[in-house]
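Quick question, first post here. What does this chain look like in 3D?
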Amino acid sequence: MLKLKKINGKKGQGGGLITPLISGIIGLVILVIIGFVVIVGVLSLCILGGNEDNNGNKIETFEDSTNELSVHNAKITTESNAVKRITGSIENNSSETYSYVQIEFDVIDSNSGELIGDTFAEVSSLAPDEEQDFQVPVIAEESCEITITGTSVSSSSQNEP
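> Answer (accepted):
Ran it through. Tokens below.
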């Protein structure tokens, strides 16, 4: 005959190994769910474009307020000889040909967030629906990133003599 031990004046409610086992399983399930959420979050940032290229370079995109110009994939790259360059492309979304286009950048220290300086890239003769690559050297010894601050254009005259 099996006898139940009295705990706190009641028979059969001691829990024994079952209560800690259930608590352990619940805790493990919660940890697995949290781990899954963290992994999915990190992967989605990588897949959906955490604004970095495959080399970890921050990528900037920009559209001017009139939506006539779009800057694509602007980033700082470092060449094997340690020369830094801003590279990217600019697209003319308007129906007008531009004789000159300038893209302005702030260069920012990646560690401190402070402004190091500013520079610009330029392209000439950008036709409607045309996209051109640009590049400009950056003089900075520290690790840096860019922010596109604006664009300016000069239009070709339609009635040139």
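The CA atoms of residues 57 and 121 lie 18 Å apart.
Helices lie at 18-47.
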